[in-house]
Amino acid sequence: MKRIFDIRFSLDKDMDEFARRKLELAGYKYKENDLHGVYYQAMNAFRRSIQTKPRRVEVAPDVVCPDHLKNGYHKLCAFIIEGQNLNPYLNHSLLRAHTPDTFFNTMGLHHFHLGDGLQKTGKYKHFVKRSGHIAIALVRDDVVYILDICQHGRNGDPNLWFDIRFIEIIHKNWPAEIELFKMKGLLASKNGWNAEDMGQLTKSGISVPYEMEDGTVYMSPGGGITCAKTSLMQTMDTGRDARYIQWAFDILVANIINNLNEYLWPIHIRFVGLDKGVLFVDDTNKDWFFITDPEEDKVTYVRIPYEVIEDESLANSENLLALPSAIKTMNRYLAIQ
Questions:
Q1: Looking at the domain assignment, is residue 28 inside a domain?
Q2: Is this prediction's pTM over 0.85?
Q3: Same-domain pairing of 58 and 197
Q4: What pLDDT digit, counting tens, does each position of 225-273 carry?
Q5: Which domain holds residue 327?
Q6: Closest CA to 18 of 337, 278, 286
Q7: Where would you tag: which of 100, 219, 232, 236 has the fewest CB atoms within 10 A of its CB?
Q8: What is the spatial distance between Cα 247 and Cα 243, in angstroms, rounded to a whole number?
């Protein structure tokens, strides 16, 4: 008699629920009915956020800070070097996970406000006081490059966020930082786009190459945008995570089928964590499952009774892998046959 395996799992629903928990814990707002889902919004928020760690500061040769903002600018530089939290210097929209940052998505750049001290009232308190002039910066894992300090807002250039000169500054001073985005073998046009042209194209959902004065051409260092005006990198990262979670679920199903008599049916599986592997919980049988691939041809598969770690917030890779008796390593390909 043919056996019917009733295993219930909703990938999109669980990914969005996982993202909700992450966003709410970090204090971000999000839209429930956003076309791209909550997980995509979380990708947007966390990609824009700057990890807190010490970095050195390098400044482009022509940067000039207005006298009235020097205290704020020097504090920003000190915060960078000391490894303080830089996110309060960013745009208020950082807290809205559903709001895209086109400047970041296209050029890969941040902008820091240079106010001296924090806002103490209003819905954006704890952000640095806003300033007309901002520092344009390229943030890397161990260094922040200050490219320019310029006026923005009502009194600034309306095409500031599309100004190719920021990429030109990186190209002239730190070309290795954008070498990955160089379009080799591409002939430059004789008439490059100006900031206004770039703005019109970007607002229409068109990613365009950046042509330097010496003829070098770069694709968008921020990854670029799609025709839907969404971040190409966030779209790809969301899809990558979905494929990885689905791969881990297939491993889990194969192992359940190989041990049918150990389970109550129907089995309700939820994805609940992504930390150096994929974490699932079986709500029917009250088991945790942690699956990862530490080696190219091996899979680490962990099954642990729910009562061992009852708090979902504590069910992470570090705690689960600390229980060596539960770890099973198998051949990746045999596991999914």
A1: no
A2: yes
A3: yes
A4: 999 999 999 999 999 999 999 999 999 999 899 888 889 999 999 999 8
A5: 7-16+235-335
A6: 278
A7: 236
A8: 6
